[in-house]
Every structure is written in structure tokens, then in C-alpha cells.
């Protein structure tokens, strides 16, 4: 099997496109050239002139169409755009609509200005939290071990850290453009070893080759930086953002980057987080840190994307008043309005860390004077790592549509003072695996992320239906429905056996796959469940707990605070209750824990049966790939069920009222 091209892989499209490199030429301001062979144009049914083998098609750009410079209109077999990028998106929309047989008429503009992908790829070729093979950018090609991730010492071995597989990157760029992505950062936010030097020569010149490819698909390239770079690679004595020589060093580095990559996007910064250096080391706050970089970027319209994942990862578990969920809010809310216009805060959707159920991070809605990006994780670090089925779009959309401090139609965009500097960002799930994502069905998440950035009024069902029709063009409606049913329920299924009623954090430390009920309980990371013989859950109420509920708008705070009003599935994130506590579902807490875990296992058994019934209907590679992973998922679900149920039986001494197998 050759490299799969995600939704652009179906034989129908492939026959037409025959691996043709087709891209937009953005050189001319007011027109765009799509290089397409004549048979493609004929198949598309576009009214365009063609020339022998290769057709050069001039498409009209209409700036009056919409103020949004990425909008398109498909009408009377013409694609028009408010800019060349609009035409590019219009082209893919046309292709999509044609394949799923929708009317070839549409006017559309993206809802989110920034639609960004973060790679956590490292210069030694590994990918932090990557479950689909090695990095598509970097590899260990040098004769010596070119990085030492544990130390900040830089060993210079030249530029053979790059993979130079530009065919693959072209495919990737095409896929990204086809789902509307317009920004990408290439390297892990934990920037270590040689990775620190990507921003300077000779590495930045190689980055520019990659950036050129992405540029041709309308995508801006960003790099993650190490806050201490002035000390580490600049050999300065300090990285204090208020020191003149530090500011000068950064502005020189940034000005050089723009000489090499004129359309460079900017930096992504993880500072003062999980051991990474940051402005706190010098007694400066995050606004002082970010604004220092922003100033250097101003002349080039570059951006500083500053992450808010800042919490004390050295917590004393003995002190029940500590609450990691409050950390980002406490660090950043006092700085609202203090960030420069070209700074954007990148904020994880929930207050802990991409769990299968978390409430919305309370900074959303509360921040009104700071540009924002909502951060998602497509790579399923805590959600089954692309072994277990987990179509996460339903969960993401519920975060986007949760309204805190109401009114805003679009929480992120409408609360950002400069809406063009706001949007959604996600950690991607691709690597060198032939199907990019490890699990073929995990492509749905990547596709879905792009689509929800473009239009978050689409619902999870629509997006999934679209993806299935585009990806499995050959299968019949019944088979499609079967796969649909598996995927649409998969996030909930994972939740059933992973985290009882949103308690979270019962997974194997560091790896985050499989159960270890007390794995984090007596550790420094601030992720606890506080189970004892009387009950379980984290009391985050104002009345008796950490007071986290008060960070929300009063009507929401009241709902979370109150046992009568809180939804069952949110219960243990906010309250510590005893095992005989009766939930809204009419059952006790302990019985609900047992029932959910058994139900989770039985859902996975059912997925296996359904998948067996599609054998012969989907292609063999996909069939085997998913079948193998479903079997692993069943072991995982069973393991969770057995360990969690046994643990709570031993804690509570209460039997399952249906007498099912619980190991005692
Ligand atoms: O979820 C945690 C991950 C880390 C990651 C960190 C972050 C890149 O376990 O691997 O580091 O989040 O988001 O910075």
C-alpha cells in the first residue's frame, strides 16, 4: 500500500488527480493559478479553458464578495474568491461537494481566522505524544546521536536532522489546505537540545524549504522556541525580557528569520510550564515576556502565540486546598488587557489536560481584552492513543458551544480584541505511518478539526458523515452507517470505561494509556481523585472545597456548586460524594461506576462484531488495521473495567447489584 492521502485518497479522486501536484500560486495579488490537467477540469465540470495536458486556469478574485479574505463562492460552475486563498478553499469545497453530491453552489467564509496545527515533533525524529510513527519533518539521520533531550547542551551536527521527504510534505500541505488549515508550527513546545537552534542558521534555511511548501498551500509556518534561547544559543548571561541585550538578541534573530522566510508566522511559546524556562525566573510576568517578543515581531506582522498551560507541577498532594484546575486562570486573568495586539494566548479547552470529560476552561468568556486560541488535542494522548476508537469532535464542539459569561456568538473570536488574531489550534496526530494516523479511523478527527474551524455550526454527525462519504467512496450506505454508528458513539464509550463521572486521572503515569487508579494520587502533578472508603471526587465548591466553581459566571458557578443541579457526568470533577449517593439517574454512585465500566466493555465487544460484519466491504488494509486495534481496545477496556471496579469494590465493600464478575 502506498501512502494514504486521507480524504484525498479515495480511488475516485486519485484516478482524477493521479498524484498530480496541484497548488495555488500566490505570487500575483489579484489572481490565482491552479495547475490542473485538463481531464480533472472536465471531470470537475468547471467552465474553464484548458490547454492540452496542463490547464492553467485563471480564476477571478472578487474582493467585494466578503470582507473575509478567505471566502469563496461557487456558482454557475465558477469558483470565485475574495483572495487567492479563497479560491483555493473554494476548489476543495467544490471537490467535496461534487463527491458527496451536494449542489454545486455555496458561498462560505471561515469562522475562525487562525486555523492552526501544532506539531510536537522533535529534531531526533520522535514525536511527543505521537502514535503514528516518526516525525514527517525530522529524523535521526546523522552518524551520531544528534540530540540530548534531557540537557540543554547543543551538539552541532549540521542540518541532517531534516527528513527532506518533500513529496510527503506536499501531500500533507494539500491535505491541510483541503480542510482549511492556514497555520502550522513544526516542532515540540518542549524545545530541547538542538531543537533550540531551529530559529538560527543553518537550520532556519532548511525550515524555509518546508515553509515554502506550506506557503504554496496558503499555510504560514511557525516555530516553537525555548524561552532561554538567549542564554543557550546566544550565550548571554541572562534571558530576562527586560534586559536590553536580550531584547536585541531576539530582534536580531527575528529579523534574520524574515530575511530567510518572508512570510514566517511567528513563535509558539511554552514558558514557566512543566519545567520549561520562562519570565518567572526573572521575576517578570507573562505579559512582559510575551510583549518583549511581540515588539520584535511587529515590523513583520509576526505573532507570538503564548500558551497558558502554566501550573505548579511540584504540588504537595497532602494539601487539599491546592487546585491545578485554577492555575491558568490565576496566572492569566489578572493580565487581561496587558498583552500586545500581536500576542495570542493559546488556552487548552479544559482546566486540566485534554481529558475525556472536563468542564470548559473558565478563562474562556472571562477574558475580554486578550486575543485567544482554543487548544484541542487531535493526537489522542488521554483518549486511547489512536488504538482505541475515539471520534472526539462531539466533545470539542460541546466545549466550543459552552457559554461562560454569555452573549458572545463565538466565544473565542468575539472575545478577542483583534478577531483576526484568534481561532482554534490542535496538536495533530500524524507521523510517517502509511495512513498518517496509525488508525485509519483516527483521520476523522483531523478532518473534523479542520471542518469545525471553518464552520462550527456544523454538527459532529454532519462532519462524520462527510468524512465517511469522502473517505470510503466505494462502500454502500449500510456499511457506511455501520462505521458511522461505531464512531459517533466512540468518545462516550471511551469515557464509560476511562473516567468514572469525570473524575479523570486514573491512567498510567507518563504514558497515559491504560489504568493505574492511584498512579497520580500521591504525586506532584496535581491530578487527584481523593478516593477513600467513604467516597470519591474532588471538592471544588466554594462552600467546602477549593473554590474553583467561583471562576465561572455566577449562574454557571451556581449550577456546578449545587449537587441538585450538576449533571451526573460532571459530578466527580466538582464534588466528593459517598458511594451510596443517589445520582440523577436514580442509581447509587457505586452502582453507576460498575454499570458504566461493564457497559464500556460491552460497547467495544459490539464494535468488534460490527467491524467483522464490514469485512470484504472496506479495503483490506483498512479492515486489518482497525480490526487489530479494536482487539487491543477490548483488552484495554477490560483492564480498565476490572481494575476500576475492583478498586472501588475494595474501597466501598459494596457488591454489584447485578452480581457480575468483580475481582475481589
Ligand atoms: O498533556 C501534557 C503532555 C505533555 C505536553 C504538555 C503540554 C508537550 O503530557 O507531553 O508537552 O501537556 O501541553 O505542553
Automatic annotation (TrEMBL):
GO biological process, one term: xylan catabolic process
Residues annotated as domain Glycosyl hydrolase family 67 catalytic: 104-436
InterPro entries xrefs: A-glucoronidase_C_sf (IPR037054), GH (IPR017853), Glyco_hydro_67_C (IPR011099), Glyco_hydro_67_cat (IPR011100)
Assigned GO CC terms: extracellular region
One GO MF term: xylan alpha-1,2-glucuronosidase activity
Domain of life: Bacteria
Listed name of the protein: Alpha-glucuronidase
Record Pfam families: Glyco_hydro_67C (PF07477), Glyco_hydro_67M (PF07488)
Lineage: Bacteria, Bacillati, Bacillota, Bacilli, Lactobacillales
Residue span, Glycosyl hydrolase family 67 C-terminal domain: 437-660
Amino acid at each position: 500500500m502506498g501512502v494514504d492521502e486521507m480524504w484525498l485518497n479515495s480511488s475516485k479522486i486519485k484516478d482524477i488527480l493521479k498524484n498530480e501536484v496541484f497548488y495555488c500560486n500566490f505570487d500575483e495579488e489579484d489572481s490565482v493559478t491552479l495547475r490542473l490537467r485538463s481531464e480533472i477540469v472536465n471531470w470537475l465540470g468547471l467552465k474553464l479553458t484548458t490547454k492540452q495536458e496542463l490547464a492553467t486556469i485563471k480564476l477571478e478574485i472578487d474582493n467585494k464578495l466578503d470582507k473575509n479574505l478567505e471566502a469563496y463562492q461557487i456558482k454557475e460552475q465558477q469558483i470565485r474568491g475574495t483572495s487567492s486563498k479563497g479560491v483555493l478553499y473554494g476548489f476543495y469545497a467544490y471537490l467535496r461537494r461534487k463527491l458527496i453530491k451536494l449542489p454545486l453552489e455555496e458561498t462560505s467564509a471561515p469562522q475562525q481566522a487562525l486555523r492552526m496545527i501544532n506539531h510536537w515533533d522533535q529534531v531526533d525524529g520522535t514525536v511527543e505524544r505521537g502514535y503514528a510513527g516518526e516525525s514527517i519533518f525530522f529524523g535521526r539521520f546523522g552518524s551520531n546521536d544528534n540530540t540530548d533531550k534531557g540537557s540543554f547542551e547543543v551538539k552541532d551536527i549540521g542540518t541532517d536532522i531534516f527528513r527532506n521527504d518533500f513529496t510527503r510534505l506536499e501531500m500533507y500541505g494539500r491535505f491541510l489546505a483541503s480542510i482549511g488549515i492556514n497555520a502550522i508550527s513544526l516542532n515540540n513546545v518542549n524545545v530541547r537540545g538542538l531543537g533550540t537552534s531551529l530559529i538560527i542558521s543553518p537550520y532556519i534555511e532548511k525550515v524555509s524549504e518546508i515553509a515554502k511548501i506550506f506557503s504554496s498551500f496558503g499555510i504560514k509556518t511557525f516555530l516553537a522556541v525555548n524561552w532561554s534561547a538567549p542564554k543557550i544559543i546566544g550565550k548571554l548571561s541572562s534571558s530576562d525580557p527586560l534586559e536590553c541585550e536580550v531584547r536585541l538578541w531576539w530582534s536580531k534573530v527575528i529579523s534574520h528569520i524574515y530575511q530567510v522566510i518572508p512570510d514566517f508566522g511567528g513563535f509558539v511559546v511554552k514558558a514557566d510550564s512543566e519545567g520549561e524556562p520562562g519570565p518567572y525566573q526573572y521575576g517578570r510576568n507573562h505579559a512582559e515576556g510575551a510583549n518583549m517578543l511581540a515588539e520584535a515581531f511587529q515590523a513583520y506582522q509576526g505573532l507570538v502565540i503564548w500558551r497558558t498551560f502554566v501550573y505548579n507541577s511540584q504540588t504537595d498532594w497532602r494539601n487539599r486546598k491546592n487546585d491545578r484546575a485554577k492555575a491558568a486562570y490565576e496566572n492569566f486573568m489578572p493580565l487581561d488587557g496587558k498583552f500586545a495586539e500581536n500576542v495570542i494566548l493559546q488556552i487548552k479547552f479544559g482546566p486540566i489536560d485534554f481529558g475525556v470529560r472536563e468542564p470548559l476552561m473558565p478563562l474562556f468568556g472571562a477574558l475580554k481584552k486578550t486575543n485567544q486560541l482554543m487548544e484541542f488535542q487531535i493526537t489522542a494522548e488521554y483518549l486511547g492513543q489512536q488504538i482505541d476508537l475515539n471520534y472526539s469532535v462531539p466533545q470539542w464542539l460541546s466545549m466550543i458551544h459552552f457559554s461562560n459569561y454569555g452573549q458572545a456568538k463565538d466565544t473565542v473570536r468575539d472575545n478577542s480584541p483583534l478577531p483576526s488574531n484568534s481561532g482554534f489550534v490542535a496538536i495533530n496526530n500524524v507521523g510517517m505511518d502509511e495512513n498518517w494516523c496509525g488508525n485509519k479511523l483516527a483521520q476523522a478527527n483531523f478532518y473534523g478539526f479542520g471542518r469545525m474551524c471553518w464552520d462550527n455550526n456544523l454538527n459532529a454527525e454532519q462532519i462524520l458523515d462527510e468524512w465517511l462519504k469522502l473517505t470510503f467512496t466505494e462502500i454502500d450506505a449500510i456499511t457506511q452507517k455501520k462505521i458511522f454508528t461505531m464512531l459517533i458513539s466512540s468518545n462516550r464509550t471511551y469515557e464509560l470505561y476511562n473516567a468514572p463521572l469525570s473524575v479523570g486521572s486514573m491512567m498510567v503515569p507518563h504514558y497515559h494509556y491504560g489504568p493505574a487508579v492511584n498512579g497520580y494520587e500521591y504525586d506532584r502533578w496535581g491530578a487527584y481523585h481523593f478516593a477513600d472508603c467513604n467516597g470519591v471526587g474532588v471538592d471544588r465548591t466554594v462552600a467546602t472545597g477549593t473554590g474553583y466553581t467561583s471562576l465561572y459566571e455566577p449562574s454557571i458557578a451556581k449550577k456546578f456548586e449545587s449537587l441538585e443541579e450538576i449533571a451526573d457526568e460532571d459530578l466527580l470533577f466538582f464534588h466528593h460524594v459517598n458511594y451510596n449517593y443517589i445520582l440523577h439517574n436514580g442509581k447509587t454512585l457505586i452502582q453507576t461506576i460498575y454499570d458504566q465500566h461493564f457497559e464500556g466493555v460491552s460497547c467495544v465487544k459490539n464494535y468488534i462484531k460490527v467491524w467483522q460484519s464490514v469485512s470484504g466491504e472496506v479495503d483490506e488494509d483498512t479492515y486489518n488495521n482497525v480490526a487489530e486495534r479494536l482487539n487491543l481496545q477490548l483488552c484495554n477496556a477490560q483492564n480498565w473495567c476490572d481494575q476500576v471496579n475492583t478498586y472501588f469494590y475494595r474501597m466501598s465493600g459494596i457488591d454489584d447489584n447485578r452480581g457480575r464478575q468483580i475481582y475481589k
